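We modelled the chain as a single entity of 139 amino acids. Its sequence is:
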Amino acid sequence: MLMCLGPVVFDPIISNLEETDLEIESSFAKHEVVGGDPIYEAMGGDGATIELSGVIHPEVWGVNGALAKLEAAEAAQLPLPLLRGTLEPLGWVVIQKLKRGDRTLSRFGYGREITFSVSLIRVGSPAASLASAIIGLFS
């Protein structure tokens, strides 16, 4: 396993992740000082965005349902746990954008190579009341 996003397990063969990018921002309040440099007061994190991108070859490995699970998770608009392949937690995220590109279409209308990218926003831990809805995505 390379990474796990909620119900979707990315592996090095079937639903292969090729890149991950992390961007973290912090907020600061600027206070002007007469005759001196401004003072910046830390206001906490302004969130992080994470980009995952990869490729699937359905004619070689079959369609494993990873894209369908990603589409369902995006439609549900629920926070999902994100884990590295070592099971290191990377926090809770929501899917902001999901992009799919079918390349060299087969006679069945899907790509012989399917590229995908997922834009994630790191969020706080979800409320306990969302637990059953989140678990429902895993079935």
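As a brief sanity check on the tokenised model: The chain has one domain: 3-136. The chain has a mean pLDDT of 85.
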